[in-house]
């Protein structure tokens, strides 16, 4: 093979999807000379599936990425066509933003951003293999025989590895949306000792807007006063586009049932594992056959295109069946399909082969992030990408690894789940995966993570100063409310009774705010604000005071958890030498190699007795060290 | 250094006359002091013993007369402050003392945890480390198998059902959160949540109530035989013991000289208590007075009251009737082989709803009737062993109490109109506590539930 030397970089990021974007930018901002290689420069940060970013848990991840200095929040703020705050009638912990994106604008903005990033080189190319010497990754080789050497490599190839598209009985090797698949990298990884598994996902057909009869559907508008994902975005006025809601019916289900045998997923051929939460319409009909109808959302793919995404109809039925099926749906009777729905199968690196830094255990200085690690979703990819980028750079500069724990971020929950428990289906973040979700809110992502980003070097001074100011104002306002006394005058009680409460004796404004009936705005109108605090400060004060009891309880639980996280397991530990630990637990521990006793205790198959013994063993080591 | 205070019964159950409840940790002495009536032990010198009583601060009831040893760290087994409460009142009262200690905020020690602390605090040297690990393993495994054995299949069935109920509720809240736009899932309301939490709360309460009865089954129904001298009390005792194979005599004679006979009468375990005292009924009634006898009687679950068929009702008999009013008793008119002098009407009237049985112990007659009556009293009341689910393990009871508390927190939040995702935090905790009882702490089940219960996805 005639190769040529194409240069040396600190960090090479393979792939410019949602994970690659964040990894590349984070590494570059921390000062590493970074190269990003991707298959097609016109498809940077392409959304192969739904044209939307955010939602419960996921939207909070976008905020977290933003607080750490990432780009996803800014990109969507620049490209959204609709913005909604979800769960506004529920508690603050579960509120989250979701935006409909203009896919093309998102990609253009992403490319522009990368082009203008210092320390970052963008190049089109397909990586075929890694250069590994003595268990250390030293670079990559591309299809066009370019050899790039580097201090570390981050692979973020998404669903491309040995990708195979399935539509009915038609199948062909392909990446998403008929892009080229990555065929060689999987073999290379297997040769290097990685265990791969096969997952699958799918996407619905797209139809052309003017063929839809919207009068038969319900309109779903965006929020009147949209909020933004990024802490840096200041108000921008955009005209929002609505989405539309319609339903499947018995005729739809009939078509599907009649053709079930034709579905790539039901034809009996053994396939990669799909996720329960991204079922195809076939899945839904089979598993919930008593349901008379399913929701279908019609989502525009952008402003300058007429293409509409048919959310709810993900399928791998033959194309002709898709035509038949779609015509049964009210509003879609005459709909013209522009692209058929399809399923895609791809290779995944079993994520328990990673350290919590996203570095692989097998090969030093090799990181993987995004859908290649068995997750699904743009936001999940972005969250891993930024951590991989930060850690690659941190390692380069000899800094401490950056690991978020389960009480710090959804990103921490996700990565801990992946590396500790692995996953046997595409992993999606849900609010219920977080034990401390009251602490992991949309509104406080900056308070949780800006400091970490700043210390690492991904958050700049200006942003940091803004964060410090917010923190200061929140504390100051809380103190003020804790000093102000509200007396039970007749006027006061008249006002309070309208709110549904009432005062017997004087109380601190702080305590009054704790009453369920009272909002920060009420307090404000009682006290006549002496400062014009920013909205986000008021919101923060309101939440922190109102839910103080619950937050405190959660923090106590966190403290207990952290005690176990702080008990580090030495990396030279020899589990074979510890007699008391059960055999099954030993095997698991040897495989996962947890960094702390806390992480060990979350491995399935490691029971409390094993944890006790492990603790004793580690303390014994400490005692031995002291004694020596 | 560990920061919390742990407690457990630290003598093997059923071995030895004295049982010890041990507390270890920074709060050991203040916690013990809070439940100890006697000298102020917070001031006591290290390695001293003190006589006094353990009192339940919640009810001010005296639970047990005890000797308390105070040992201040670091010259103790665990190198922490240790208090040992020496009880000699048998299993029931030791457990009671343990419960009171737990109510002070001590945590129930994990199996082998005292030893573990001893080790972690450097008390046990390196060469013993291996042994410590084996010990922890052995104790944990044993405790687990004991706990599992103690858990009736019905209990785990019930707990599983309650958990499933809670899980469905939680999944419902979750689906509203994670899939807010899905309208085919009904929005969970405060009313629905209120109803569900109430139901589960009720069931947990019942379990806890029955836990007491479970204790009765395990410990035996404390049964006192009373009556005037010479009416046939000893004969009755002998008859019951001979007829029915004695089960165990768990607590041999101690300083207090308590004699307890365990007999199993048609599935009802009777603990014939304090037979020494029975012979003194005369004293109790006549010399010490009715008040004292009331006290003795109050501690019994069942009273067998023997009358002489051959004599008219005396003033003492009537006093005894007064003394046992409101308690569960069975009247036995003994010596029916002799001439009837006792007025049946009068006895029946005084006995009220309680059974009246005729026996001739000397001729072995009527014992069957008596046994039937005992069984009936026990089973006909609230207690029906057939359907009852017993919780007897202290750890289980403790977890049930925690589950109940968490659920009450959730119920309070509902009344305060807190958002349901906040209410749900405590519902989930309830579910977790219940899970610990049956050893199921897998956190993935919620997500499994979510996707099997609801049809979600793009
Ligand atoms: C059909 C389909 C349906 C989906 N449905 C859903 C859904 O319903 N819900 C959901 O949350 N998520 C869904 N996803 C997943 C979502 O698109 C991904 O999770 C997300 O895009 C992953 O981001 P990533 O950065 O890991 O990978 P990608 O965004 O796929 O990016 C991979 C990048 O790597 C590059 N690349 C690949 N191979 C090489 C190579 N050898 N050399 C150089 N560059 C390479 C590609 O050019 C691309 O830029 C779906 C994906 C597909 C394809
Ligand atoms: N005729 C007759 N004599 C009985 C019967 N039961 C007991 N006795 C006799 O009554 C006497 C007293 O019986 P105990 O069983 O010792 O009576 P007690 O109530 O324990 O007497 P104290 O211990 O003195 O209180 C003994 O001589 C028994 O044999 C009976 O059913 N019929």
Structural features, described:
Chain A is α+β, with helices and mostly antiparallel strands and 628 residues long. The termini of chain A are far apart. In chain A, strand 7 (127-133) and strand 8 form a beta hairpin. In chain A, strands 1, 2, 6, 7, 8, 9 and 20 form a seven-stranded mixed β-sheet that branches. A six-stranded antiparallel β-sheet of chain A has the order 14-15-16-17-13-18, with helices on one face. In chain A, 37% of the residues lie in helices and 19% in strands. With 458 residues, chain B is an alpha/beta fold. Chain B folds into three domains: 6-109, 2-Layer Sandwich (Gyrase A, domain 2); 130-210 and 391-441, Up-down Bundle (Four Helix Bundle (Hemerythrin (Met), subunit A)); 225-379, P-loop containing nucleotide triphosphate hydrolases (Rossmann fold, 3-Layer(aba) Sandwich), CATH 3.40.50. Chain B is 48% helix and 16% strand. Chain B contains 16 helices and 13 strands. A seven-stranded mixed β-sheet of chain B has the order 3-4-5-6-2-1-7. Chain B has a six-stranded mixed β-sheet with strand order 9-10-8-11-12-13, sandwiched between helices. Chains A and B meet through helix 7 and helix 20 of A and helix 3, helix 4, helix 5, helix 15 and helix 16 of B. The structure holds flavin-adenine dinucleotide (FAD) and guanosine-5'-triphosphate. Residues 227, 229-235, 279, 334-335, 337-338, 360-362 of chain B line the site of guanosine-5'-triphosphate.
């Amino acid at each position: 093979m005639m190769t040529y030397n194409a240069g040396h970089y600190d960090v090479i990021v393979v792939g410019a999807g949602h994970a690659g974007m964040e990894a590349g930018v984070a590494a570059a901002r921390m000062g590493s000379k970074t190269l990003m290689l991707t298959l097609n420069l016109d498809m940077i940060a392409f959304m192969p599936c739904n044209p939307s970013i955010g939602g419960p848990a996921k939207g909070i991840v976008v905020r977290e990425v933003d607080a750490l200095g990432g780009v996803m929040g800014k990109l969507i703020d620049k490209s959204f066509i609709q913005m909604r705050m979800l769960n506004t009638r529920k508690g603050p912990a579960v509120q989250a933003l979701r935006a409909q994106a203009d896919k093309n604008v998102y990609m253009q903005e992403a490319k522009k951003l990368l082009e203008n990033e210092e320390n970052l080189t963008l190049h089109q190319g397909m990586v075929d293999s890694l250069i590994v010497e003595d268990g250390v990754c030293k670079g990559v080789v591309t299809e066009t025989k370019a050899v790039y050497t580097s201090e570390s490599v981050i692979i973020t190839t998404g669903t491309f590895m040995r990708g195979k598209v399935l539509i009915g009985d038609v199948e062909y090797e392909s990446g998403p949306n008929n892009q080229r698949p990555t065929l060689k990298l999987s073999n290379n990884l297997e040769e290097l000792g990685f265990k791969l598994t096969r997952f699958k996902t799918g996407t619905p057909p797209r139809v052309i807007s003017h063929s839809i009869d919207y009068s038969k559907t319900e309109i779903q508008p965006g929020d009147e006063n949209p909020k933004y994902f990024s802490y840096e975005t200041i108000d921008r006025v955009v005209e929002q586009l609505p989405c539309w809601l319609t339903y499947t019916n018995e005729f739809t289900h009939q078509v599907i049932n009649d053709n079930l045998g034709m579905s790539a997923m039901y034809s009996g051929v053994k396939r990669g594992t799909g996720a329960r939460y991204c079922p195809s319409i076939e899945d839904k009909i089979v598993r919930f056959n008593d349901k008379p109808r399913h929701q279908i959302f019609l989502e525009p793919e952008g402003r300058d295109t007429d293409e509409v995404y048919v959310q709810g109809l993900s399928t791998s039925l033959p194309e002709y069946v898709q035509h038949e099926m779609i015509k049964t749906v009210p509003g879609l009777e005459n709909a013209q399909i522009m692209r058929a729905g399809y399923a895609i199968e791809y290779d995944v690196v079993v994520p328990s082969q990673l350290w919590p830094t996203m570095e692989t255990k097998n090969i030093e200085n090799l990181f993987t992030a995004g859908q290649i690690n068995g997750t699904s979703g743009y936001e999940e990819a972005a969250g891993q990408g930024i951590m991989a980028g930060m850690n690659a750079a941190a390692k380069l500069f000899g800094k401490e690894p950056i690991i978020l724990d389960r009480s710090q971020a959804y990103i921490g929950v996700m990565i801990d789940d992946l590396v500790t428990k692995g996953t046997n289906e595409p992993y999606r973040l849900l609010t219920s995966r977080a034990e401390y979700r009251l602490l992991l809110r949309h509104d406080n992502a900056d308070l949780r993570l800006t400091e970490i980003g700043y210390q690492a070097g991904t958050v700049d001074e200006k942003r940091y100063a803004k964060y410090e100011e917010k923190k200061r104002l929140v504390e100051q306002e809380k103190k003020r409310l804790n000093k102000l006394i509200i007396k039970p005058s007749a006027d006061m009680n008249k006002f309070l009774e309208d709110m549904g409460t009432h005062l017997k004796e004087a109380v601190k404004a702080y305590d009054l705010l704790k009453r369920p009936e009272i909002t920060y705005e009420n307090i404000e109108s009682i006290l006549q604000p002496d400062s014009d605090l920013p909205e986000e400060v008021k919101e923060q004060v309101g939440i922190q005071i109102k839910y103080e009891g619950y937050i405190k309880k959660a923090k106590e639980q966190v403290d207990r958890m952290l005690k176990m996280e702080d008990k580090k397991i030495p990396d030279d530990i020899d589990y074979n030498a510890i007699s008391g630990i059960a055999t099954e637990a030993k095997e698991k521990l040897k495989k996962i190699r947890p960094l702390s006793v806390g992480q060990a205790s979350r491995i399935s198959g490691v029971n409390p007795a094993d944890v006790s013994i492990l603790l004793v063993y580690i303390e014994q080591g400490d005692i031995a060290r002291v004694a020596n | 250094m560990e920061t919390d205070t742990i407690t457990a019964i630290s003598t093997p159950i059923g071995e030895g006359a004295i049982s010890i409840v041990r507390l270890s940790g920074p709060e050991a002495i203040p916690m013990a002091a809070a439940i100890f009536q006697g000298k102020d032990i917070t001031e006591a010198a290290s390695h001293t013993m003190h006589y006094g009583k353990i009192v339940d601060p919640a009810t001010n009831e005296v639970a047990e007369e005890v000797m308390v040893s105070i040992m201040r760290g670091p010259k103790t087994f665990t190198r922490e402050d240790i208090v040992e409460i020496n009880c000699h009142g048998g299993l029931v009262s030791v457990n009671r003392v343990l419960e009171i200690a737990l109510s002070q905020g001590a945590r129930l020690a994990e199996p082998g945890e005292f030893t573990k602390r001893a080790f972690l605090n450097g008390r046990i040297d390196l060469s013993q480390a291996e042994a410590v690990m084996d010990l922890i393993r052995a104790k944990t495994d044993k405790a687990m198998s004991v706990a599992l054995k103690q858990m009736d299949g019905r209990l785990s069935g019930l707990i599983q059902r309650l958990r499933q109920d809670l899980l469905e509720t939680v999944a419902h809240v979750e689906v509203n959160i994670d899939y807010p736009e899905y309208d085919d899932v009904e929005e969970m309301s405060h009313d629905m949540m209120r109803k569900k939490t109430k139901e589960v709360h009720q069931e947990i309460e019942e379990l806890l109530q029955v836990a007491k009865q479970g204790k009765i089954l395990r410990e035996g129904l404390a049964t006192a035989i009373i009556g005037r001298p010479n009416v046939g009390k000893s004969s009755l005792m002998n008859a019951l013991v001979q007829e029915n194979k004695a089960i165990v005599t768990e607590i041999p004679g101690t300083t207090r000289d308590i004699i307890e006979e365990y007999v199993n009468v048609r599935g009802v375990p009777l603990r014939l208590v304090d037979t020494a005292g029975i012979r003194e009924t005369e004293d109790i009634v006549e010399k010490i007075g009715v008040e004292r006898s009331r006290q003795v009687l109050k501690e019994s679950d069942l009273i067998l009251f023997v009358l002489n068929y051959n004599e008219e009702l005396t003033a003492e008999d009537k006093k005894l009737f007064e003394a046992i009013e409101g308690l569960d008793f069975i009247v036995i008119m003994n010596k029916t082989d002799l001439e009837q002098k006792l007025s049946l009407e009068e006895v029946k009237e005084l006995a009220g709803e309680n059974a009246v049985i005729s026996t001739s112990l000397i001729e072995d007659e009527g014992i069957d009737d008596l046994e039937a009556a005992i069984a009936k009293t026990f089973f006909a009341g609230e207690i029906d062993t057939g359907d009852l689910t017993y919780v007897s393990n202290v750890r289980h009871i403790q977890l049930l109490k925690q589950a109940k508390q968490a659920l009450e927190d959730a119920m309070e939040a509902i009344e305060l109109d807190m958002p349901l995702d906040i209410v749900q935090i405590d519902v989930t905790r309830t579910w977790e506590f219940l899970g610990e009882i049956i050893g199921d702490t897998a956190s993935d089940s919620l997500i499994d539930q979510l996707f099997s219960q609801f049809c979600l996805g793009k």
